[in-house]
Amino acid sequence: MTSPAEILPGVIFYSYLSTERKEKVCLWNHHTLILQVSGQLILETSEQNISISGGELLLIGKNHLGTLTKTPIPGGNYETIVISLQEDLLRKIVLEEKLEADRKYTGQPNILIPINEFLEGYFQSIIPYARSSGAAMTDEMGILKVTEGVKLLILALPELRNHLFDFSEPFKIDLEKFMLNNFHFNIPIEKFAYLTGRSHAAFKRDFMKTFGAPPRQWLQEKRLTEAKHLIETKHQKPSAIYLNLGFESLSHFSYSFKKKFGFSPTALNYRLSTNDLQH
Q1: Confidence band of 1 (pLDDT split at 50, 70, 90)
Q2: Is residue 149 within a helix (H) or strand (E), and if so which, with residue range?
Q3: Given a cut of 70, is residue 232 above it in pLDDT?
Q4: How far apart are CA 53 and CA 37, in angstroms?
Q5: Cα–Cα distance between 238 and 30 in angstroms, integer?
Q6: Spatial distance between the Cα atoms of 83 and 142, rounded to a whole number of angstroms
Q7: CA gap 217, 271 in Å, rounded
Q8: DSSP character for 132?
Q9: Exposed, middle or buried, 146 (CB in 10 Å: 0-12/13-18/19+)?
């Protein structure tokens, strides 16, 4: 089976795999609901580290960066159902159900949802469609299932209405703090601008004022400096860290590292290892 498979195009997805796969960069443009059917999923962001296993439910906040690690159960598989809570559908629910936000949401962006019998029954009703690649699910039925899921979420955690139904644009946030927490994510500069509440031009202008360098140059320097720190102090291997620091390939990372420091990351790692053995 292709993974992930679309059960309702762009809205409901089914992910299935039998070997570990790590996705280094995920950017959620919409609130996203994840039901872990089997196996383990770990979400890592600059502020949270959340692990869920079979039967657990996670809501990931929109406009958010993170890393996902997907691990099958020993001797078994990894299965998850993902529902994208897109803004146009949430606006429709607000109009039809009169469930609008009544105050600013101040909780964590990513939330473990306590499973009750209603949510458990809801997801049990979706699993057969997922495993059959949604063969029998019409678009109308899919939208009804998503709407039902949103209503059950709010029944379980009433404060979620203020999280799900906040349609305001990202406000201008502290650029320095955000970039220092998220520099390792390999996303376009335009996405960094949007997530800090700025136009592309305003982002570049504010970035230069804050860091004294253009975004691309600063990101490269910051990632390489962090790599050197991890190799020297944590004794991590170059092959284990380059993806975590936003480099797309080991060869590009090694080339950039040697150009900046005059020696390759592998040479540094080897030299440190040799010194440790001698002492």
Answers
A1: very low
A2: helix 139-156
A3: yes
A4: 8
A5: 34
A6: 10
A7: 28
A8: T
A9: buried
| 46 contact partners, CB below 8 Å, separation of at least 6 | 65, 181, 182
pLDDT in tens, 119-132: 999 989 988 888 88
Identify the helix (H) or strand (E) that includes residue 25: strand 21-28
Q: Buried (b) or exposed (e) across 157-183, using 16+ Cβ within 10 A?
A: eeebbbbbbbeeeeeeeebeebbeebb
Query: pLDDT exceeding 70 applies to what percent of the chain?
Result: 95
How far does CA 84 lie from the centroid of its chain?
13
Q: Return d(Cα 81, Cα 119) in angstroms, integer.
A: 13
**Among the listed residues 157, 162, 165, the one whose alpha carbon sits nearest the alpha carbon of residue 111:** 157
How buried is residue 12: exposed, middle or buried, by Cβ count under 10 Å (0-12/13-18/19+)?
buried
Measuring CA to CA, which residue among 89, 145, 141 is closest to residue 119?
145
Rounded to 5 degrees, φ, ψ at 5 are -100, 145
| Dihedral angle, C-alpha 248, 250, 255, 256, nearest 10 ° | 50
* 230 has pLDDT over 80: yes
What number is the average pLDDT over the span 182-201?
Answer: 92
Which residue ranges form the domains of the chain, and what is each CATH number? Answer: 5-164 (2.60.120.810), 175-278 (1.10.10.60)
